[in-house]
């Protein structure tokens, strides 16, 4: 039987390499897709993100024989869940009941994302996830900058001529880029050691 190979590697080796890249690719795609969809601002986007991350977490839970979570993992998940519950409960005393419930629903994305990372990702792949996050942020910022430079945009009544797309708000895009820079600097400093 003839062995198929690509650049001196067997298909089995390529499959193992691809499997090791999955966490970073998944993180990069999630960050890029949500970023390009107005930064995940609208309920439809975060609902779809929640479903996708829940499917990932469920696949990881069903696909593993035994899931071992450290105490800090449980604490982190519990704190995120408590924040989500508190946000939902704030609808009782809030003047904007619907807004509070929507914010609780948005917070649930963070709980599911943390659960997916804790159960689906090996500790050694955290650096890949961070690289994926930096790549996703870079894609979103490059897309916005490319549209701004090459296509331009008409004067916006709120944002003026500021760079604000695709997130819809100039400060949001700046914060988004700054978070990507902080993660990138952290990765660079960690790689130096």
**Count of distinct strands:** 2
> In which range does the helix fraction lie?
over 70%
> Structural class from helices and strands?
mainly alpha
Beta-strand share of residues:
under 5%
Radius of gyration: 20 Å
The strands making up the biggest β-sheet line up spatially as 1-2
Which sequence of SSEs, written as H and E, runs from N to C?
EEHHHHHH
* Rough outline: globular
In whole angstroms, how far apart are the ends?
46 Å
If helices are DSSP runs of H or I spanning 4 or more residues, what is the number of helices?
6
Largest sheet report: 2 strands, antiparallel
Please give a handful of descriptors for the protein shown.
193 residues; two-stranded antiparallel sheet; mainly alpha
Question: What do these coordinates show?
Answer:
With 193 residues, the protein is mainly alpha-helical. It has helices at 11-36, 43-63, 71-89, 97-120, 126-151, 170-192; strands at 5-6, 9-10. Strands 1-2 form a two-stranded antiparallel sheet. Helix 1 (11-36) crosses helix 5, helix 3 packs antiparallel against helix 4 (97-120) and helix 5 crosses helix 6. The chain is globular, with a radius of gyration of 20 Å. It starts with a strand and ends with a helix. The model has no long low-confidence stretch (mean pLDDT 88).
